[in-house]
Amino acid sequence: MAMKRIGVFICHCGRNIAGTVDVKRVAEEIGKREDVVLSTTYVFMCSQPGQKLIEDSVKKYNLDGVVVANCSPTLHEKTMRNAAARAGLNPYRVEIANIREWAAWPHEDNPEAATRKAIRIINATIEKLKANASLEPIEVPVIRRALVIGGGVAGMQAALDIADSGIETILVEKEPTIGGNMFRLSETFPTLDCPQCILTPKMNDVAGHPNIKLYTYSEVDDVEGFMGNFKVKIKKKATFVDWNKCTGCGECLRVCPAHADSEFDLKMAKRTSIYIANEQAVPLKALIDENSCIRLQFEKKVKEGKIKPKKNVKICSKCADVCEPNAIHFQNNEEIVEEEVGAIIVATGYEVMPAEAFPELGGKYPDVITSLQFERLLAPSGPTAGIPRRPSDGKVPESIAFVHCVGSRDPQNGVPYCSRICCMYTIKQAMLVKHAMHDAAVYDFYIDIRSNGKGYEEFYHRAKEEYGVNFIRGKVSKVYRVGDKYRVQGVDTLTGRIVEVDVDMVVLATAAKGSSTVKEIAKKLRIPYDEWGWLKETHLKLKPLETPVGGVYIAGAAQFIKDITDSVSQGSGAAAKVMALLSKPELEKEPLLAKVDPEICAGCGRCKDQCAYDAITIDPVRHVSVVNEALCEGCGACSANCPTTAIQVVNFKKGQVIRAVDVLAEVF
Amino acid sequence: MTEKKFDPVIVGFFCNWCTSAAADLAGTSRLHYPASIRPIRVMCSSTVDPVYLVRALQEGADATILGGCHPGDCHYITGNYKARRRVAIVKTVLKSLGFDESRVLLEWISGSEGPKFARVMNEYTEYIKNLGPSDFKYLDSLGGEKLD
Predict the structure, then answer these.
(1) Which of A303, A476, B24, B61 is 20 to 30 Å from the Cα of A320, by its Cα?
(2) Does A410 have pLDDT greater than 80?
(3) Is the pLDDT score of B24 beyond 60?
(4) Under CATH, what is the fold of the domain A350-513?
């Protein structure tokens, strides 16, 4: 059974491998094995001639197994398997020995050790390969529906593109309205478009699209299944208002006596307890904030037994009294709905660090705010109608300081990376201040101006030359209160002098991070993320939209902070990936799944206990374990718990792994 | 021979989704760690039978590392919890045989933690170097012979 005519192909990868690993010696050593009939090297195994070499060799030497020693199997396993398959060899008789990422690169300082390690990895791979079975992929049906998580500009673009192709798309947004952070902005760089003007058509398209099912004020509660067959539970959060009846007239808002900070205005304004996210919200529906509503708080306390209501007490129902369609019912209408989809796009966007995180830069003062908050003060639709006013006293500021890189490029106080969009939006904000108040003094403290986009550098020069913004190259060390003003202390690194300016307001361009909800969602989808909350793509350069989980894609700032142009492009890109996946009626599933040998299985059920997918049942008649191939994911948890080795993962059998371990553990 | 520098043998079982990806990233980032780490990719940390770990020690390894996804982040939902229990059992058994159980290490290294991968490999190799060669093969309780 074991393979006896194995071909081993060792890739130079230019100098990436051959520069460290002595590939000739590796080929000679491996060639000494009795079960290897061909051991050779080639400069680029992934090139057309490299693949041809495999094809020709399979035929010429009648190979029954192939090991390609090259890069990570995530890159070229498929390439090599396809090459072998073209020559008639079952693709599952091809294994990759990763001697680039795992030997040549980490040990480039020690070529001898790298060479020996490469030989060992190849030998271990051969031992594993020898008992590989020929397999055929399993075909599973595909659900032709998609889910997009996040209704910002990237998510909306993705949903629209997929829906336009005729595929039903579900869009889930945690806020009561779609639009995301873009809808909060005043104007966009470098064109100075008004986002409320350019985004509302898209928002209305989403709401009115026959193929889009929109869930706002909803969250993904649970995800099960696999590529092509996901089961998603969506939690529709309690609104206490019947949205089928609500017309969005806003009468209730005018009578509500309770208030809370506006989420949409990022605490720059108050809203009533029953509220509509903003005037252009899609959908335009009212909802009640449980934590500030007088009635709901009262009812909660009564329920908890904290207060005992007097008889016939009249408790606030002002909103319901004026509601003509009778939409307000005060009932907790939280609901879980289930949807089945074939593919998922995560477009959860970004957040910025709060100003309070930077007390030394005055983050504790009311007039020291983040740039995103300042966007609301600059927005014509915002609480100050586009003329910024100080949050503390409502005064129109005569002087404003902008501070770049607050927390960005600063691993001690924030994050190590550049937040990418701050330079451009700060320049824009400085310009807009000049638009609104011609005589205002504007100081812009920067470390470097990074304006790397179409029209960006020109935009920066306009701000400098046409608008007279004072750009000061240097980091701000301290912001503190002096009377009615804030003193900004920094250094001008171009002149080497200490700079001190007294201003009415300070705007901090704080570092961007992934959305605070993304970690929860990532865990449910089992996709990786980093410590800053950015989702990890499969390959930064070549697979920026893919995740390691098949059928799950990333779009927009969920992957890393990016501007609107890039977010929209990624939204469309991820949509294209989903459309390609859902264009086929059936998907091929890897056949590397658990398999039971009924001759040995005693039906004890220990494998069943281990299975996270409920893929194993015990046949009541034969009293043996049975694996449902559609559900099995091939993790192998069952096999490690089997006392008799009856259940094993195909091509990862215990004997195979142990033979490989023997090679690895051997003392040379 | 006695003067020869001790170069430990450490067999690493790395799960396909997290720690193998971290090993790839460490390589791509040209982060250096000792070649004493001898890696094998497994689909999930939960597929690592305790037998694999013991077998590695028996066949000459001075230590073994099992690398999986962080708790809660397992690609297969709960595989890493299962692995954690299995490793705990292996350690208990080894300890009861009079063997230093720190020669079996379980680490959570996610796919984005290339630097952590390199750091763990460096630190653990250094640790095992200080600990000296494993005497597992000659343990009296195993009869001093290979169990095959």
Answers:
(1) A303
(2) yes
(3) yes
(4) FAD/NAD(P)-binding domain (3.50.50)
